[in-house]
Here is the input.
Amino acid sequence: MSDSRPTDTPTVKLLIDGEFVESKTTEWRDVVNPATQAVLARVPFATAEEVDAAVASAQAAFRTWRKTPIGARARIFLKYQQLIREHMKELAAILTAEQGKTLPDAEGDVFRGLEVVEHAAAIGNLQLGELANNVANGVDTYTLLQPLGVCAGITPFNFPAMIPLWMFPMAIATGNTFVLKPSEQDPMVTMRLVELALEAGIPKGVLNVVHGGPDVVNAICDHPDIKAVSFVGSTKVGTHVYNRATLAGKRAQCMMGAKNHAVVMPDANKEQTLNAMVGAAFGAAGQRCMAASTAVLVGEAREWIPELVEKAKTLKVNAGTEAGTDVGPVISCAAHARIKGLIETGVRQGATLELDGRDVSVPGYEKGNFIGPTIFSGVKPGMAIYDEEIFGPVLVLLEAETLDEAIEIINANPNGNGTAIFTQSGAAARRFQEEIDVGQVGINVPIPVPVPLFSFTGSRASKLGDLGPYGKQVVTFYTQTKTVTARWFDDETLGHGVNTTISLK
Here is the structure.
């Protein structure tokens, strides 16, 4: 953080009332390439007045946007998905420069957000009410799904394309207006997506963007004109957002931390399972809230550790822009230091370090925040590397004698974002999906993030709020159900006199 900015460094703008404007703040933060430490831009921490202006713009735009025909809203998102496809390579390049993930993974980040944009374009089939004809003598009852007003989103650094696209397209498609606060660590690809959204036809004031830290987050939680808040990020911040926003009378959905377990049964296809585990644990340098960061090896699967380690050793650690890279840098120097500290704690607490990625060297990128694939065996609950979300390329291995013991371990963990089982037994898979207390289950799928036809359904300590982002659930989150009971009379209908009972007969 600094109080001034060099004139030759690009600045990230705010979006207020359809205009990209320079913040008047005195607080700025560097956007840093995690592979090189080069400063790419400076991002402002918006003032209270700028946040108020963004919300006021959204509030004013809501008066007309809510009345925009649903087909007109849908056509904007048809155009938007086309623009995202046309700019996929450009978006991926911006994302990799500021976030660090490989170019193919950056394209995947954009694509998974694009799927939600495509879903938003189908809003005409999603925002449907219900009708019951003639529920009493000449009486019909029906529901309307009406927009709430100004909604807001707070997004994390690890998916700076996908997660903003989880939020504002569905909120806006359902007739709301939106104030977005991207991660201050990598806001540039988000802002390019916002530019494309305006190009697609989103009217001024319908989408606004402010940047900042805790003060801006608190302003969003407190603002009386914001009706709903969506958040993805750490458990600590998410809990704060949920408590503060709901105390202020808002709807809130907060997707938070995780410790995702994969159960490996001895009958699993070994090659497929090892490949899946290595990819899911170390892809995006482990910086996924759905990363398979923890494996529970059941029975004879405990003998697979040497092969798992050998497969992890084949991954190439390098800058995300370099061809053939499997594992890029972690987001920041602070994250790098925290992950290394947790690895050292794991050694001190008695876990076996099967593969150590702390001293990885990347020629040409000596200043990068690189940590290579790291694997611990002999891990037990109570160790910091198990109890905490590492959010880096570290895989921890636990052991169990039976499937029931593995289920017991997972259900005892407070988090419930995702889990998976690798097996060729339908009976074992069915038992697992029924008995496991986790919101999203993969069967021979290590990262079971659902497509937007369904909703993201993390549970327990990984989620606050009962409705998930995107899919059918988020239409409910972003709308108010209004129930109408109607009776119409024609001139020939005879009245029945005064009725003082509750009956509709």
About this structure: The longest helix spans residues 48-65. Residues 286 and 392 are 4 Å apart (CA to CA). The mean pLDDT is 96.
